């Protein structure tokens, strides 16, 4: 499904070059759920951006669903994002002036799905996250947990191969966070590949597998349940922004 | 994204910032309205002149000394005389009617009122030239000219000043001290933008009085009427031949047909219209810059929105279209309102300034095209800027 090899990413700020990733290789099978953990500045957001086709690696190869994507054009990447990837962000990133339904419809607008079909699919996605009754509310009329569930509905409305969730519970209280994780787990059980970026080990522990990144390199890998065995490693990441 | 989708999106986002959109719109409204109103002034003028010339008929030929040749080469100008007109009448079979005109200054007096005014010395051909412009009485007749009858036709305002609304016919006025009977009164032409129309104050006299009154019988114009429209060219050739015979081969006279005058006038009037439209266009330019300004602000404000749209799969073209459509719809809506306002303005100008304004289809076409054009021109840079935002940066934008 995902096969990233020797991914390097160097940011050229003019005077100095900053290496955010220094050779990361990662394989994710279809239907797997993987947590990427690490403290802020470790490069996990950069990795997430590359895996999400928002950015291209400086060097290395990345094949997604059998297609090499590290050299695609901006528009080709946009199409990949539209068809194969669903994003869930820490800050929800919903359009503030659009209703929940319109927000969920958004990816379908760009894949050219016409009016009534689009509406139907968006509604059924909202049903899956239990928010059909909030379809015509705007984001500011929703609680944080509800907003994040709308964002999940938006991520899965295109029936993507992967859902990338970047600190999905970071802005939520414990109860809403658990609710969001429950939905993500459900999706995982339905066979969707999930990649989770977090620095909360308890959240990461719900994934099949975890990958820990520090200073642009993978320092540790293991099963999700193993992560809590060495809490010291995760302790440093707590409280920091990704 | 489909056309309809883009339109819906553009209108929705304009609706969220109502006041701002309205103010931006205002710039375009004023711009388009001034283009329409200015052009209506030019077009109105053109229509007026064309109608006046068309009233003359398309079979007329104007003969006059060639002032341009004199000015350019310094050659001595040949003068036209009443005899030239006689010769044309006699030797040009394609010419049906000939009339002469000469203009001079005279003093007209009735009782204690006296005016220095321009006099048109002419003959019976006046009735063809000024068909339908006589208010009462009659035009000059052949006999008036031949026997130097002391008769005069007064311009409308002049007759009013002397005799009031009616009763001028048969009265006697003094022209350069000599007594003349009033045989006709012309209709008033009305005011122009420069004030009173000078022809309303002038008088018309038999040409044979000219030599004594102005010291010269040189003719300013000879008007000829071709036998019919198809013979205009033939008539012109015959006139040229007769004049060459009388004045020598190198004599240069300008012989032009009313059709070509009409053509030239139309062209000049059209240029005038375009210049006026251009002046209106300057305010449209200012309005367009307003649109661009607001679009740039809008792009900055909605950086995060662009990021979200790109993350879920919007291509550069989609974002470009979205912002471009916003600018274009601003300009088109503003254009539509501007056309209505310009129309109203044109009507107002016609009413207050007494200048005939005319909103032509052409000026509306110009307005619509320049409105959409300015939408594209002033929208494309902000839209381009939005389309090329980096999705990661845009998502991070606070």
Protein model, in words:
The complex is a heterodimer of chains A (242) and B (398). Chain A has a single domain (2-229), classed as Rossmann fold, CATH 3.40.50. Helices cover 34% and strands 26% of the residues of chain A. Chain A contains eight helices and ten strands. Chain A has helices at residues 44-51, 74-84, 100-110, 115-128, 144-156, 174-189, 201-204, 231-235; strands at 2-12, 17-28, 33-37, 59-64, 67-68, 85-88, 162-166, 193-198, 209-214, 217-223. In chain A, the strands form two sheets. Chain A has a six-stranded mixed sheet with strand order 6-7-8-3-9-10, with helices on both faces. In chain A, strands 2-1-4-5 form a four-stranded antiparallel sheet, covered by helices on one side. In chain A, a hairpin with a 2-residue loop joins strand 4 (59-64) and strand 5 (67-68). By secondary structure, chain B is of the alpha+beta class. Chain B is built from 14 helices and ten strands. In chain B, strands 2-3-8-5-7-6 form a six-stranded mixed β-barrel. In chain B, helix 1 (3-16) crosses helix 12 and helix 2 runs antiparallel to helix 13 (361-387). Chain B is elongated. The model of chain B has no long low-confidence stretch (mean pLDDT 86). The chains are: A alpha/beta (242), B alpha+beta (398). The interface between A and B is medium-sized, with 25 and 23 residues.
User: How would you name the CATH homologous superfamily of chain A?
Assistant: P-loop containing nucleotide triphosphate hydrolases
Number of strands of chain A: 10
Shape of chain A: globular
Give the distance, in angstroms, between the N- and C-terminal Cα atoms of chain A: 25 Å
Arithmetic mean pLDDT of chain A: 89
| Fraction in beta strands of chain B | 15-25%
The quaternary organization reads as: heterodimer
What string gives the helices and strands of chain B in order? HHEHHEEHEHEHEEEHEHEHHHHH
Structure class of chain A: alpha/beta
Proportion of strand residues of chain A = 25-35%
What's the end-to-end separation of chain B, in Å?
27 Å
Largest interface: A-B, 25 and 23 residues
Count of folded domains of chain A: 1
Rg from alpha-carbon coordinates of chain B: 32 Å
Give the CATH topology of chain A.
Answer: Rossmann fold
* Strand order in the largest sheet of chain B: 2-3-8-5-7-6
Q: In the CATH classification, which architecture of chain A applies?
A: 3-Layer(aba) Sandwich
Structural class from helices and strands of chain B?
alpha+beta
Count helical runs of chain A. 8
């Amino acid at each position: 499904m995902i096969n990233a090899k020797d991914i390097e990413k160097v940011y050229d700020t003019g005077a100095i070059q900053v290496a955010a990733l220094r050779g990361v290789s990662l394989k994710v099978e279809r239907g797997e759920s993987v947590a990427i953990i690490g403290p802020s500045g470790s490069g996990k957001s950069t990795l997430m951006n590359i895996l999400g086709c928002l950015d291209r690696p400086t060097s290395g190869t990345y094949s997604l669903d059998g297609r090499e994507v590290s050299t695609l054009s901006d528009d080709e990447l946009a199409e990949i994002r539209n068809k194969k990837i669903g994003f869930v962000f820490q800050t929800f990133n919903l359009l503030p002036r659009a209703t929940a339904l319109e927000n969920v419809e958004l990816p379908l607008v760009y894949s050219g799905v016409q009016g009534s079909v689009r509406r139907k699919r968006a509604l059924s996605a909202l049903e899956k996250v239990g928010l059909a009754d909030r379809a015509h509310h705007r984001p500011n009329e929703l609680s944080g947990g509800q907003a994040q569930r709308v964002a999940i509905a938006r991520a899965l409305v295109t029936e993507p191969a992967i859902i990338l969730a970047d600190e999905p519970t970071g802005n939520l209280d414990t109860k809403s966070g658990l609710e969001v994780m429950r939905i993500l787990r459900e999706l995982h059980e339905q066979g969707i590949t999930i990649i989770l970026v977090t620095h909360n080990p308890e959240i990461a522990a719900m994934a099949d597998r975890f990958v820990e990144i520090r200073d642009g390199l993978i320092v540790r890998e293991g099963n999700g349940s193993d992560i809590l065995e060495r809490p010291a490693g995760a302790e440093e990441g707590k409280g920091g922004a990704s | 994204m489909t056309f309809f989708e883009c339109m819906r999106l553009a209108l929705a986002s304009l609706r969220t910032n109502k006041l701002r959109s309205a103010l931006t719109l205002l710039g375009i409204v004023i711009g388009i309205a001034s283009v329409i109103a200015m052009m209506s002034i030019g077009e109105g003028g053109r229509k007026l002149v064309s109608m006046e010339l068309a009233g003359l008929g398309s079979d007329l030929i104007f003969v006059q000394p060639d002032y341009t040749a004199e000015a350019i080469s310094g050659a001595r100008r040949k003068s036209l005389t009443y005899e030239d007109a006689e010769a044309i009448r006699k030797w040009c079979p394609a010419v049906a009617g000939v009339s002469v005109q000469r203009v001079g200054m005279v003093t007209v007096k009735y009782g204690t009122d006296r005016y220095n005014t321009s006099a048109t010395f002419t003959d019976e051909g006046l009735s063809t030239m000024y068909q339908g412009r006589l208010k009462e009485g009659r035009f000059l007749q052949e006999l008036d000219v031949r026997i130097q009858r002391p008769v005069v036709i007064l311009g409308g305002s002049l007759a009013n000043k002397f005799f009031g609304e009616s009763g001028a016919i048969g009265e006697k006025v003094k022209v350069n001290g000599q007594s003349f009977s009033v045989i006709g009164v012309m209709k008033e032409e009305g005011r122009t933008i420069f004030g009173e129309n000078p022809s309303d104050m002038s008088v018309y006299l038999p040409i044979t009085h000219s030599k004594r009154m102005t010291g010269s019988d040189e003719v300013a114009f000879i008007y000829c009427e071709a036998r019919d429209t198809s013979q205009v060219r033939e008539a012109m050739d015959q006139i040229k031949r007769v004049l060459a015979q009388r004045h020598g081969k190198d004599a240069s006279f300008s012989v032009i047909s009313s059709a070509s005058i009409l053509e030239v006038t139309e062209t000049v009037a059209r240029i005038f219209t375009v210049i006026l439209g251009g002046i209106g266009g300057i305010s449209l330019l200012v309005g367009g810059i307003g649109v661009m300004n607001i679009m740039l602000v809008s792009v900055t404000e909605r950086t995060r929105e662009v990021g979200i749209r790109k993350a879920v799969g919007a291509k550069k073209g989609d974002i470009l279209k979205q912002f471009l459509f916003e600018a274009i719809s601003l300009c088109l809506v503003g254009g539509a309102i501007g056309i209505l306002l310009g129309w109203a303005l044109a009507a107002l100008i016609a009413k207050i300034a007494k200048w005939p304004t005319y909103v032509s289809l052409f000026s509306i076409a110009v307005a619509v095209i320049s409105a959409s054009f300015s939408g594209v021109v002033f929208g494309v840079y902000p839209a381009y800027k939005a389309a090329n935002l980096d999705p990661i940066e845009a998502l991070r934008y606070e």
